[in-house]
Write a structure and sequence with these properties.
Blueprint lengths: L16 E2 L5 E12 L4 E8 L2 E13 L6 H13 L8 E14 L2 E14 L12 H6 E7 L1 H6 L3 E3 L3 H9 L7 E7 L1 H7 L1
Parallel strand pairs: 2-6, 4-8, 5-9
Antiparallel strand pairs: 1-2, 2-3, 2-4, 3-4, 3-7, 5-6
């Protein structure tokens, strides 16, 4: 029997399962892709239930059954951005966080691990590997600097990304930053 907050079926997909708190939950691998100019390749998307809310975020997604975090990160790079890299191309994990957010009319929790990949000459991203759901809610991919993100009027997740880029561009210091739990909906409340 499902709780009123967590319906038995979900538009989120089968990898989102009810957690101990009744919210949909999954583990995810994300990649901060940096080019030689110090810009990060980011995706802009929106909530299907609130198309007016749009935000920037790093490439990545759910970890499939039997996948390591690194394997998931590399698969997501290939599927979301058309970028073929190998395990030696990943640094980290550089950061972890638990993101709480509202999407497809549900409050979800995603436990995320972040890696860095450097593509000095850049990369022209493609959407050839996007799923139907991604095609519905993802709007664009673009290279953005930390200063671009600070000037951006849309939300940026994780919120520390501009400051983190400042540190990562010069090289990762080997420290894994643990952000704990971030409620991404708080950014929406601050915006209103």
């Amino acid at each position: 029997m499902s709780s009123p907050e967590t319906p038995a079926s979900s538009s989120l997909g089968p990898d989102w399962v009810p957690g101990d708190d009744g919210r949909r939950h999954r583990r995810a691998a994300r990649v901060i892709v940096l080019d030689g100019a110090g810009r990060a390749l980011l995706v802009r998307g929106h909530d299907a239930d609130d198309p007016t809310r749009s935000w920037w975020f790093t490439v990545g997604g759910g970890i499939d059954a039997g996948e390591t975090e690194e394997q998931a990160a590399l698969r997501e790079l290939r599927e979301e951005a058309g970028l073929e890299l190998g395990p030696a191309d990943l640094e980290g994990p550089v950061m972890t966080r638990a993101g709480l957010f509202h999407f497809f009319a549900e409050t979800c929790r995603q436990d995320e691990v972040f890696f860095v990949a450097r593509v000095e000459d850049g990369h022209e991203p493609t959407d050839h590997g996007w799923t139907d759901v991604e095609r519905d809610v993802l709007d664009e991919m673009r290279w953005l600097s930390a200063d671009d993100l600070r000037a951006e009027t849309r939300e940026v997740f994780p919120r520390v990304l501009p400051d983190l880029l400042d540190h990562l561009v010069a090289g990762w210091d080997g420290v894994v930053r643990h952000l704990g739990e971030e409620n991404d909906d708080e950014a929406l409340e601050r915006r209103d």
